[in-house]
Amino acid sequence: MKVLPTKETISLKYACMLLDDASAVIINDTALTYPAVETLTDEPDNEFFYVSWTDDAGYEYKVTAVEENNQEVLIENGSLIFIDNEGESFKVTLLNVFRAKGDKS
């Protein structure tokens, strides 16, 4: 189990590894979803992160992020803080499924 520090920065590459390991994520404490994490290419406009969801009222939301804005990713209170394509920060809380030893499901 990975425990994230209270506040520090990590590389985008390491943040993507953490995202890849996550079972799901919570965006800005409001939406439980499954992110699409693409391969890093070192191209500034590469969209490496994409999530979308629909709220209870039927409104659709999406968040994308490019490499250029996220070379360093802030960890704050156990969540990753990314910058979206509009220059706004958003919080990603990682969730993982833990299985009991010997559980084959």
- Distance between the first and last residues' Cα: 19 Å
Percent in helix: under 10%
Structural class call reads mainly beta
Low-confidence stretches: none
In this structure, how is the largest beta sheet organized? Answer: 6 strands, antiparallel
Shape, please? globular
Strand composition percent = 35-45%
Count of extended strands = 9
SSE string: EHEEEEEEEE
What is Rg? 14 Å
Give a written overview of the molecule:
The chain has 105 residues and is mostly beta strands. 10% of the residues lie in helices and 44% in strands. The protein has one helix and nine strands; from the N terminus they run βαββββββββ. It has one helix spanning 12-21; strands at residues 7-11, 24-27, 31-33, 36-37, 47-54, 60-66, 72-76, 79-83, 89-95. It has a six-stranded antiparallel sheet with strand order 1-7-8-9-2-3, with helices on one face. Strands 4-5-6 form a three-stranded antiparallel sheet, covered by helices on one side. A hairpin with a 2-residue loop joins strand 7 and strand 8. It starts with 6 loop residues before the first strand and ends in a 10-residue tail after the last strand. The mean pLDDT is 89.
